[in-house]
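DM from R.C. (forwarded with permission)

"hey, sorry to bug you on a friday — could you get me a structure for this? deadline for the figure draft is monday and I only need the backbone to look sensible"
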Amino acid sequence: MKNIRQKLIFLLKIIFSFIILYYLFSKVGIKPVIDTAIKIPMHFFVLVILIHFVIMYLSALRTRLLLRFKIKISRLFSISAITYFFNTFTPANMGGDIIKLYFIKKEIKNNFSNGSMTDALAPIFMERFMGLFVTLFLCLIFLPNFLNYYKIQQIWAFPAIMTIFFILTLAILHFQVGNKIKLVADFYKALSHFSSRKKYLYISLIYSVTIQVLNTINICILSEGLGLNVYCLYYFSIIPLITLINLIPISIGGLGIREGAFIFFLNIVHIPADKALALSLLNFAITFTASLIGLIEYVRYKDALKDNKFSML
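My reply, with the result:
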């Protein structure tokens, strides 16, 4: 019954994504979007794909720093690529984290006798927490610049909600809510190891900032390739906001919601809807193309997953 319910929810999210896309295309037309997208020179396309590979590698380095156990970077890069692929198509980009947890848990189990599931969960939680923190931090830094373009005070709702989320999360961690449950207590214990590894946390935070900056630079590059006359600083003002909006788990990989957000925010600086939609979809297409390396890795080792083995990577 639970499995049927999950499939139904997933199907509804797919339908919701396509309804939004259909609405957007009905307003701007398919041909103008395609005509805009195909104008981008190939070297812009290739450059953005290469930056995505750099992001995957930085993600692997960050994971390696946060893990208590030393796993080869080549293995973690493969896990990072697989995570990247599944994050592209799952609500709030959470699906990849589940796959990543499974792979790292198997790696720890097969190679370290004293490892546990929480040793895999803690660094993944910390990565996600850092990513959200950096997104919120950039949002708060650049939001005043956005308000110079568009006086809409309600926009503070997005970072305000995330700030409340962080405060509640920190409170839960501080008071160790639920520590009577063994699994939760083990999770808190795994997190406690970070207190003696603050140097690694700081370096990981730098990686997180770099990843977020590179994601925005990708948009700047694509915007330049499409000939959009938008200052890069403006993208640094709106991409953190779009990232927060993209976390709303009502569509597949943010598809549709993200495109609507691009149209809204770029309309403020007088970019036509067809060009904004082309930019968003082109970014998604390139992200998907780069993530195919993760699909290759996953298909390559799917037999190992079925057999409950993990000699991969």
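R.C.: lifesaver. The longest helix spans residues 117-149.
me: no worries. Confidence is low (pLDDT under 50) at residues 308-313.
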